[in-house]
Design goal:
Layout: H1 19-33, H2 39-45, H3 51-77, H4 82-96, H5 103-113, H6 118-123, H7 129-144, H8 147-152, H9 157-174, H10 183-206, H11 210-238
EC number: 1.3.3.11
Enzyme class: oxidoreductase
Keywords: Oxidoreductase
């Protein structure tokens, strides 16, 4: 059996999945690889992280949040379909804001609730190298892939709704000092399912061969791996073993 770019398997002899079967295959990827079950998230949701560890998560996660509209602008630029571009640009507005407050500003509000200075967060000077590498790899994935693959990489949103609801409850229960910074998650409760439905319908429609369907699955797997890698960096540097890298300026929590 031949190999294709990025080691995706060429399923030329495979059977084309129905839309429901493709959705089930993606669900299997999510159950196996989505970062809701990462040890760092499990600790967070159980209330086992310190204030400093939560600050490290908010600070480092900002870099990912800040790249989302850039990623979406790259995807938008790949399409010559006006209807697609109109639909996809909603994502950019959701994060950058338009007449209202966008997701990036809401994340900065979360950072301030966590006790972080917004300009310090915006500078991204204190984030872990591993976080920067993983997020930049996501931008590279979207930049260097086809439109179908780029859209499919966003299908982690299929699983995000349940995680967001769980996270909101956990943060309110275990970290009440973050209560005034939860607006980001409230917005994503409706945005993420809408975005996921559109991306899945697009992927299912345009992946009209077994090979293209394999690329959809592979793109989701790669995105899941990149999300997992970000939490690996946080877990290693701030939880176990707690070994911070030697780069100057990396965030170091105050002793608690």
């Amino acid at each position: 059996m031949g190999r294709t770019r990025d080691n995706a398997v060429d399923h030329t002899d495979a059977v084309l999945l129905s839309k429901a079967e493709l959705r089930q295959r993606l669900q299997q990827v999510g159950e196996a690889m989505y970062h809701y079950q990462h040890p760092f998230h499990l600790r967070m949701h159980a209330g086992q992280l310190t204030r400093g560890q939560m600050q490290a998560w908010v600070l480092n996660r900002y870099y990912y949040q800040s790249r989302i509209p850039i990623k979406d602008a790259i995807i938008l630029s790949k399409s010559e379909d006006v209807a697609f571009r109109r639909a996809w640009r909603k994502r950019i507005i959701d994060h950058d804001g338009d007449s209202g407050v966008g997701g990036i500003e809401k994340w900065l509000q979360l950072a301030e609730a966590a006790g972080l200075d917004r300009n310090y967060v915006i500078s991204t000077q204190a984030i872990l190298p591993g976080i920067r590498y993983a997020v930049d790899a996501y931008i590279d994935l979207v930049t260097n892939s086809t439109l179908l693959e780029a859209v499919s990489s966003s299908l982690t949103e299929l699983f995000a709704g349940q995680l967001i609801a769980l996270r909101m409850d956990a943060l309110a229960k275990h970290y009440p000092w973050l209560q005034n910074g939860l607006a980001y998650f409230q917005g994503r409760l409706t945005q993420a399912p809408e975005d996921a439905a559109f991306a899945f319908d697009y992927s299912a429609e345009h992946a009209d061969t077994p090979y293209l369907q394999s690329l959809v699955v592979r793109s989701l797997e790669r995105k899941c791996a990149l999300l997992w890698a970000q939490l690996d960096a946080l877990q290693y540097c701030y939880v176990e073993p707690g070994a911070l890298p030697p780069q100057p300026g990396v965030f170091r929590p105050e002793a608690s």
